[in-house]
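User: quick one, sequence for these tokens?
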């Protein structure tokens, strides 16, 4: 069991970055599976309640035209206990966000991880 881990870091070429920006502008989604269950993004919509969308958006475009990639994922697994050593995954949600890489440092505090930078919360980009 790992509470928090950086899965990868990469530097994109200009062509790769251009392709990703194009895909974000075209509302591309990412799909993940766990035990053959698709991931879902949970939304709260005013006057409609909870809504789910299959997968998660690769990124988003702000009103000023700035494009951001969702480079940080919080994965939420819902499961039933079969017995003391067996569990069955019954739900899989993702909370995607864009975190500026220069603020991304992982510090462990007990059993949890927090993205922090110089004693302040990491700068995240909101839609």
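Assistant:
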């Amino acid at each position: 069991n790992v509470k928090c881990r950086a899965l990868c870091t990469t530097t994109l070429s200009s062509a790769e970055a251009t392709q990703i920006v194009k895909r974000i502008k075209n509302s591309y989604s990412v799909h993940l599976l766990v035990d053959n269950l698709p991931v879902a993004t949970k939304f709260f919509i005013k006057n409609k309640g909870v809504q789910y969308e299959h997968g998660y958006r690769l990124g988003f475009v702000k009103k000023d035209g700035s494009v951001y990639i969702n480079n940080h994922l919080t994965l939420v697994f819902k499961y039933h206990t079969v017995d003391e050593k067996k569990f069955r995954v019954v739900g899989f949600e993702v909370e995607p966000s864009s975190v500026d890489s220069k603020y991304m440092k992982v510090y462990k505090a007990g059993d949890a991880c927090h993205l922090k930078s110089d004693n302040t919360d990491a700068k995240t980009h909101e839609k």
